[in-house]
Write a structure and sequence with these properties.
heterodimer, A: alpha/beta, Rossmann fold, 2 domains, six-stranded parallel sheet, two-stranded antiparallel sheet, 8 strands, B: alpha/beta, seven-stranded mixed sheet, five-stranded mixed sheet, about 35% helix, globular, binds thiamine diphosphate, binds magnesium ion
Chain lengths: ~350, ~325
């Protein structure tokens, strides 16, 4: 009996808007002017907040945080295509997407300045899962959230973000396998920014692409230019449509670059060269999105200037609010250990209050 | 002798042992070119090469699982968990295999490996980066748990841990990494595992702690001694498992009073075991209940609140005073 191939797989790469601003008209998702401008506005706002946070951190006014600069074209267009009932399941580099979903800008500042208050949403119904610091943990949560949504007949999907490094954790493989076995309505988005702290993508996995890892679990996959918001838009639309049609999970690998340090505690000069960074800056997403707006006739220098001034003022106001509101109760954690009361906690709570009162003198 | 901080002292131990023993190799995230996120392994990649300083993909369970295999085959892996808060992802491998292999095979296969991990609070880090969970490992039969408190004992204990025939969880109090320096001899210095250290002899009260809490503990003891003219015996546990209970139960027989200081949550912690052992061995010598200053049974708060939750020297002083005045 001859050997014969029984399965063959391909991985598609999608780019619609390249770094020079060249647009593939056939693939263009044809966003309306309002949609396109809104998207760009969010990208500018996220960039401004990120840059401002870096300054605050350097001045000792904010704790350690992971900058998002350069990855705006992934979570922002995705959040814009999601519906309100969908779950937004982030890792920790989806600042823009969180803002689009309605998370207050102050939340990020509170969170990275050491306050649980930064996890509290204006309404639970916003369906934004708190930051996932433990790499990979959210991948399985997303499959569970999606399962629950279907079980409750909600017609909602979960969109889950992961870093390239996160794909090495067992949770990634276990979560994708569960999601696929259950045909759960979930979309996995890997933000492949080429680095996991100091480990380059090439040392993270021997796989040629990250997208192909989804093939192992039999889910539709695609690799997109993650600095191209139009390619991301098309990929998420397709994946969400499949999820809503009961066709199960998809995996999107969005290729981008971590332009800044891993977190403000990191020093990338130890492990990567400036030439690589300079090259990546030429491909960053805001430049090309601006060119796209220009070309479509939606934008000009005056509008750009007005937008820059507007987001600057918005962030300025948010920083003011952040810095004037940090007088939360020190004993708050005692109220949230359990949903029920127990003497073990209430007695320790009393002891804590006595300690704090004594030390305040 | 050079004055080193704990980071440099641990680096020295790793480097000297790697030079001496070809079977010692390092595995971890960002331990190579980056030198570790706390710079503990700085320079070791250049000295010992990629085959011995292995920058792994991002998977704690795989780091420990592959190390168990290496150890069974005769190597001595020294693994780094980037933070103890991420080490739970390897708990399955550790409990089910690392700690049991010797018993399952009556010693035919063993797992001589070290798992280093920074732990504890006080550095204004993000969530999951500040917990003190030594008890999770100490509770497992077959596991040794070592917690140094300063540069010199960190170096000497790490050497012992690498040479130990069993898996050792080496928990590094990150708050002490760069907090102070000590003379650390260039020449090899090894401390025995499973032993505590009486760091100061005294007659009126036994004060017990370990890791980063040794600093506020020592400070409080000095203040109380000066203020009240008492003499305090201070014990640094160093070895959490196995627990060197003879050292402190004998001390309590002498002093009749004891206070234990623990950063971790109060319930089911190391201090609970210390009190139980004193009850077993020294109960009739006690002149006061054993005092305990511990963390609270709450989820470790984010750093905006951290300071008010960590035991500090004022709280240690109060605990000592209450026990003296009982
Ligand atoms: C389970 C776990 N292990 C280790 C870490 C420490 N850590 C934080 S981020 C990171 C790298 C993440 O890389 P990647 O998934 O590519 O995401 P990126 O930071 O590039 O967005 C590591 C190792 C962690 N947070 N959780
Ligand atoms: Mg990455």
């Amino acid at each position: 009996m001859p050997r014969k191939p029984i399965a063959k797989f391909t991985v598609e790469h999608l780019q619609i808007l390249d770094e020079k601003g060249k647009l593939d008209a056939k693939l263009d998702p044809k966003l309306s002017e309002k949609e396109a401008v809104t998207m760009y506005r969010w990208m500018r706002l996220a960039r401004e907040l990120d840059e401002r946070m870096l300054k605050l951190q350097r001045q000792g006014r904010l704790g350690t945080f992971p900058p998002n600069t350069g990855q705006e074209a992934i979570s922002i267009p995705i959040a814009l295509r999601m519906q309100e009932k969908d779950w937004f399941v982030g890792a920790f580099r989806e600042l823009g997407g969180r803002l689009v979903r309605g998370e207050p800008l102050t939340a990020t500042l509170y969170y990275y300045n050491g306050w649980e208050e930064g996890n509290i949403l204006p309404q639970k119904e916003m369906r934004i899962i708190p930051t996932s610091v433990v790499i990979g943990c959210q991948i399985e949560h997303a499959a569970g959230l999606a399962y629950a949504a279907r079980y409750k007949g909600e017609d909602a999907a979960a969109v889950c973000f992961i870093g390239d490094g996160g794909t090495s954790e067992g949770d990634f493989h276990e979560g994708l396998n569960f999601a696929a076995a259950w045909k759960a309505p979930v979309v996995y988005v890997v933000q492949n920014n080429q680095w996991a702290i100091s480990i380059p993508r090439s040392d993270q996995t021997a796989s040629q692409t990250i997208a192909q890892k989804g093939i192992a679990y039999d889910m539709p996959v695609i690799q997109v230019d993650g600095n191209d918001p139009l390619a991301v838009t098309v990929a998420i639309d397709e994946a969400l449509a499949r999820a809503r049609a009961g066709e199960g999970p998809s995996l999107i690998e969005a290729v981008t670059y971590r332009l800044m340090m891993h977190t403000t505690a990191d020093d990338p000069t130890k492990y990567r060269g400036k030439a690589e960074e300079d090259d990546a800056w030429k491909k960053e997403p805001l430049i090309r999105t601006r060119m796209y707006l220009d070309k479509k006739g939606y934008w000009d220098d005056a509008k750009e200037e007005a937008l820059l001034a507007e987001v600057k003022a918005q962030v300025e106001a948010v920083v003011k609010e952040f810095e004037s509101a940090k007088d939360w109760q020190q004993d708050e954690p005692f109220r949230h250990v359990y949903g029920t009361e127990h003497a073990n906690i209430t007695e320790q709570h009393q002891d804590f209050l006595a300690n704090v009162a004594r030390e305040a003198k | 002798m050079a004055k080193l901080n704990m980071v440099q002292a641990i680096n020295l131990a790793l480097s000297q042992e790697m030079a001496k023993d070809k079977d010692v190799l390092l595995l971890g995230q960002d331990i190579g070119v980056d030198g570790g996120v706390f710079r503990l392994t700085e320079g070791l990649l250049d000295k010992y090469g990629k085959e011995r300083v292995i920058d792994t993909p991002l998977a704690e369970s795989a780091i420990i699982g592959t190390s168990i295999g290496m150890a069974m085959a005769g190597l001595k892996p020294v693994c780094e968990m980037q933070f103890s808060g991420f080490s739970y992802l390897m708990m399955g491998q550790f409990e089910a295999h690392a700690t049991r292999m010797r018993a399952r095979t009556h010693g035919q296969f063993t797992v001589p490996m070290v798992i280093r991990m920074p732990f504890g609070g006080g550095v204004r880090a993000l969530e999951h980066h500040s917990e003190s969970r030594e008890i999770l490992y100490a509770h497992l039969p077959g596991a040794k748990v070592v917690i140094p408190s300063g540069p010199r004992n960190a170096r000497a204990l790490l050497l012992a841990a690498i040479r130990d025939p069993d898996p050792v969880v080496f928990m590094e109090p990150k708050h002490s990494y760069r907090a102070f320096r000590e003379e650390v001899p260039e020449a090899e210095e090894v401390m025995e595992l499973g032993k505590s250290q009486v760091v100061q002899e005294g007659t009126d009260l036994t004060l017990i702690s370990w890791g980063a809490m040794m600093r506020p503990t020592l400070k409080a003891a000095a203040e109380i001694e000066k203020k009240r003219g008492v003499s305090i015996e201070i014990i640094d546990l160093l070895s959490i498992a196995p627990l060197d209970y003879h050292t402190f139960t004998e001390s309590v027989k002498k002093t009749g009073r004891c206070v234990v200081v623990q950063e971790a949550p109060r319930s089911f912690g190391v201090s609970s075991e210390v009190v139980a052992r004193i009850n077993d061995e020294s109960f009739l010598y006690l002149e006061a209940p054993v005092g305990r200053l511990t963390g609270y049974d709450v989820i470790t708060p984010y750093f905006g609140r951290e300071k008010s939750y960590l035991p500090n020297s004022d709280r240690v002083s109060r605990a000592i005073t209450q026990t003296l005045d009982y």
